[in-house]
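Title: Prediction job returns without error message
Component: structure pipeline
Severity: low
Priority: P3
Assignee: unassigned

Description:
Job completed but the reporter wants confirmation the result is attached to the right record. Sequence as submitted:
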Amino acid sequence: MKREIYGAEHEAFRATVRAFLAKEVEPHYEQWEKDGVVSREAWLAAGRQGLLGITVPEEYGGGGSTDHRFGAVLTEEFARSGAAGFGVELHNDIIGPYFTSLGTDEQKRRWLPGFCTGETVTAVAMTEPGAGSDLQALRTTAEDRGDHWLLNGSKTFISNGILADLVIVVARTKPEGGAKGMSLLVVERGMPGFERGRNLDKIGLKAQDTAELFFRDVRVPKENLLGELHGAFVHLMQNLPQERLCIAVGAIAAAEYLLETTLRHVKEREAFGRPLARLQHVRFELAEMATECAVTRTFVDRCIDAHDRGELDAVHAAMAKWWATELQKRVADRCLQLHGGYGYMTEYRVARAFTDGRVTTIFGGATEIMKEIIGRSLLA
């Protein structure tokens, strides 16, 4: 079915993104996977191409667009290219809104120009060794010392953690406040006491630098408070629908591309003297995946459209996130099976997709948390 959410300007942007990926990403991606990190030059190239800060106001060097569909196009193309380890979507669609919606004029002038050029890579640090989806259990603290906050604690599984120049840290600023006692503090590269641990060794997303972060008596200036004091929980909840939609958009795009590559494989690969595509079981497998992808695509596109109109709520974002990522996981597994032994070889795209995509049902809120959000809304 023809998709109806994009216009000519979105498709022109899609062509730009594909050209960028072909020139600046795909030739180097294998090396980045070996290095465990994307090169700084690639970030700068993305900035020069206008792929960073699409929704940042023009006065700060951004694209000035209020159309979230451009971000969806970018996410789709990075997913289709297999470049999921290049955290552009994280930078743009997940972290960017914190700066644009919560930042003061002074903070925007200070941080957003570099955000848009690629000179300033960003990360958000929520997860802790003892607190995953349960943010209220976090132990990182920030004490009010008059002209600064004294930050202590640690974070883990932080995407862009090695490269990040700015890290939005969720810290407890009022011990007795529970959910209402947390704030967002922006920690900058080079601040004394801010240290990075290991670049974590993951089963997939090898090019994505994912790190442990440590804060030992880090003096964070008062002017680096982002948003309202003790308002972190509300700020996080306000931004989570966009984050989860972004993950869903990438998940369905990755599943669709895997199906396309598998269709080509079964037409070319022979077994028992005939192409795999001639086997009824194979055709049934493909029919099921194609149908599931088509149904999921329709719902995700509806969510993209709703978000662009400012109408996407947390429940439907949770639905899109858990369903699309679980579909991505199923499609990757079934497509690998249809590739046979070749699917287990890392030189084949399907093998990388199998390991790269596995984390999508975990980050941004695990599937179980998404179901809890939906279930509670039904019984409220």
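Comment from assignee: result matches the submitted record. The two ends are 36 Å apart (CA to CA).
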